[in-house]
């Protein structure tokens, strides 16, 4: 989904969300996971691919347990500026609700085909990519796998069985606050009301 979809769904006179314009820093691509208290609480996984943030809504958030497969619903591409966005989206706007930066950091493409590293854009378009996240809360390998075809296809987010895997650890419930501001979702909502 193109960034045009992102712009078409928003009235920037009403929403504090960024319009875009930030360019890649040229270093390691970034990932961000945003906790989003909208009509239902979920987590938005975003990976910097081809100058934009490819995005998935993950209802239960990421898991550290390789035996758990988490539904990841694709959403529109977001501009790179969105990686730093925290605030309240008005209820009358697309995606209304409170957003915080739950985790972020660089990531590395691990997707191989025939023993060679496959470009991340190609892996994404084919619907199967392996990445190593280096976040403040979660790290290690994750697989994203498209489960169908067409625009309505969903994906699965699966923790790879590596040194960072830990079925006993659940940072979604034990580490709920922002890595950017240290605030909770409730604090952000309350501060925005003032």
Average pLDDT confidence is: 89
Q: Compute the CA-based radius of gyration.
A: 16 Å
Calculate the terminal CA-CA distance, rounded to whole Å: 35 Å
Sheet-strand content, in percent, reads 35-45%
Low confidence ranges: none
Number of strands: 11
Which bin fits the share of residues in helices?
A: 10-25%
> Total helix count?
4
Could you give the order of the helices and strands? HEEEEEEEEHEEEHH
Instruction: Decide which structural class fits the backbone.
Output: mainly beta
Task: Please tell me the total number of domains.
Answer: 1
Question: What is the spatial order of strands in the main beta sheet?
Answer: 1-2-3-4-11-10-9-6
Overall 3D form: globular
* Biggest sheet record: 8 strands, antiparallel, barrel
Descriptive account of the structure:
- This protein is mainly beta and 194 residues long.
- The chain has one domain.
- It contains four helices and eleven strands.
- A hairpin with a 2-residue loop joins strand 7 (112-113) and strand 8.
- The longest helix is centred in the last third of the chain and has 9 residues, at 185-193.
- It is globular.
- The model has no long low-confidence stretch (mean pLDDT 89).
């Amino acid at each position: 989904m193109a960034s045009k979809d992102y712009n078409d769904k928003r009235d920037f006179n009403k929403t504090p969300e960024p319009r875009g314009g930030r360019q890649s820093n040229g270093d390691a691509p970034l990932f961000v996971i945003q906790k989003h208290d909208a009509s239902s609480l979920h987590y938005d996984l975003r990976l910097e691919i081809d100058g934009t943030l490819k995005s998935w809504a993950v209802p239960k958030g990421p898991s550290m347990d390789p035996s758990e497969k988490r539904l990841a619903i694709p959403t529109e591409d977001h501009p790179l500026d969105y990686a730093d966005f925290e605030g309240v989206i008005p209820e009358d706007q697309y995606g209304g609700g409170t957003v915080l930066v739950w985790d972020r950091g660089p990531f590395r493409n691990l997707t191989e085909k025939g023993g060679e590293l496959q470009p991340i854009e190609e892996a994404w378009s084919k619907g199967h990519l392996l990445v190593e996240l280096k976040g403040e809360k979660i790290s290690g390998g994750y697989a994203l796998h498209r489960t169908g075809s067409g625009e309505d296809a969903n994906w699965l987010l699966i923790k790879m069985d590596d040194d960072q895997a830990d079925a006993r650890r659940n940072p979604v419930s034990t580490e709920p606050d922002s890595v950017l501001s240290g605030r909770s979702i409730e604090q952000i909502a309350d501060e925005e009301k003032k």
